[in-house]
Design goal:
By secondary structure, the protein is an all-alpha fold. The chain has one domain: Tetracycline Repressor, domain 2 (Orthogonal Bundle). 79% of the residues lie in helices and 0% in strands. Helix 1 packs across helix 2 and helix 3 packs across helix 4. The radius of gyration is 15 Å and the shape is globular. The two termini are 25 Å apart.
């Protein structure tokens, strides 16, 4: 996650890192999200997800005071990053390091936009 103290930048960094993870660790990404694993039977996966949410929810909460809105903000950022990662893996943005870099940047830009729009709504 970003070393920035700004919550918008932390969420943008997460989105970018998510895309990179999917590209650099395709087998782990597929096992985690596409293998149909019952995460209740694999406590390590559930714990990893809880740990990630624990790192990201504070940034979302600093962007919006309502806990439900903060969760929804984090969910929108994560869903966007996931979709972009899947599209990248499917070759929709091209192949190679240039496509990865552009998709990471697209994920970060989109996360910033989502977070800023949420901040505007709650101001």
């Amino acid at each position: 996650m970003s070393r920035s103290e700004q919550p918008v930048e932390q969420l943008a960094s997460f989105a970018s890192a998510y895309v990179r993870f999917a590209a650099e660790e395709p087998a782990l990404f597929d096992i985690t999200f596409h293998a149909g694993l019952d995460k209740s039977r694999y406590t390590e996966l559930a714990s990893a997800g809880d740990e990630l949410a624990g790192l990201l929810l504070p940034a979302a909460r600093r962007s919006t005071p309502d806990p439900d809105d903060a969760f929804d903000l984090l969910l929108r950022v994560a869903v966007t990053a996931h979709g972009l990662a899947v599209f990248l893996r499917q070759g929709l943005f091209g192949v190679g390091s240039g496509a990865l870099t552009e998709t990471e940047e697209r994920a970060a830009r989109t996360a910033r936009d989502i977070a800023r729009r949420q901040a505007t709504l709650t101001s």
